Amino acid sequence: MEAPSPHQHQTAQRKAEALIEALPWIQRFAGTTMVIKYGGNAMVNEDLRRAFAEDIVFLHHAGIHPVVVHGGGPQISRMLEKLGIESEFRGGLRVTTPEAMDVVRMVLTGQVQRELVGLINSHGRYAVGLSGEDGALLRAARRGTVVDGEEVDLGLVGEVTGVEPEQIEDLISAGRIPVISSIAPEFVGSDPTGAVLNVNADTAASSLAAELGASRFVVLTDVEGLYSNWPDQSSLISSLTASELRGLLPRLESGMIPKMEACLAAVDAGVGRAAIVDGRQPHSMLLEVFTTAGIGTQVVPDEEVA
Ligand SMILES: Nc1ncnc2c1ncn2[C@@H]1O[C@H](COP(=O)(O)OP(=O)(O)O)[C@@H](O)[C@H]1O
Ligand SMILES: CC(=O)N[C@@H](CCC(=O)OP(=O)(O)O)C(=O)O
Fold first, then answer.
1. CA 225 to ligand 1: nearest atom
2. In this predicted model, which residue has the larger pLDDT, 110 or 145?
3. What average pLDDT does the segment 136-157 reach?
4. Is any atom of ligand 2 closer than 6 Å to the C-beta of 104?
5. Beta partners for 187?
6. 195, 231, 239, 245 — which has fewest CB within 10 A?
7. Domain 31-305's class?
8. Is the pTM above the cut of 0.90?
């Protein structure tokens, strides 16, 4: 047999280094829960969705407990358009009529979630899909928003007011990977109204990360991270503290508003670190979790820097 060429030797060396770099992170995170938010804009093609499913199963076998919360905004918009139902976003949130709500529920829980469950389960019997309605996992109250100083009524849009984490913990104990869509029953006080609300998936994921005491909250989207001066490509932020993010929030636009609010809320609630990573790059989540430098934008608690 021929001796390996210098190139083959270097490649093998690099692969081994990548595996060894992961060791302290596997040791640190084994046994902890990580909440991964997979945005609809990051589900660009079948290869990327497959790579995402592989990463989730990889985390599971590294002893980490992944909980997936998925979005599907572009998929909902496409279906609404097909059905001739108008919809608009205000402050990064969809104004949701009762007619649109039926479509949101159908697309998120009936389509996007089913596909993710199927992709993860092509590796084994891991994923179980839930919506916030199942076992009243989530409770929500209606919320509006403020755009340019003006109160906007968003219709059937909610914010999470309560989480019942037991069934997630039961699924994790049974070796399953929960895959959750961001639909939640409406409650006024402790009473269900019978309505369901459309919750932004970043917000729902953040509430779950906080309630589950997650070690990490990772958000996959379709940009490299947070830009301080969007869309100036040279303004990508690799790391910022919770206080720095609080200062930046009023200057953010569109989908980045709920996303960065969600990261801040998670870190404020004690989640070790939140990160925005580019879901268009295959295996970006593994690079974030298992490399020292990470990728994308990390939000760290103030104390960590102090
Ligand atoms: N400061 C910013 N940094 C990065 N992206 C930004 C910023 N401001 C607005 N955006 C926009 O936010 C989008 C991501 O939000 P969104 O479309 O809701 O994604 P997702 O479907 O992954 O939740 C990016 O594609 C980008 O167009
Ligand atoms: C209230 C609100 O805006 N809900 C979102 C829910 C889906 C979502 O958040 O999807 P992404 O993560 O892909 O953006 C919507 O209707 O689009």
1. 4
2. 110
3. 91
4. yes
5. 192
6. 231
7. alpha beta
8. yes
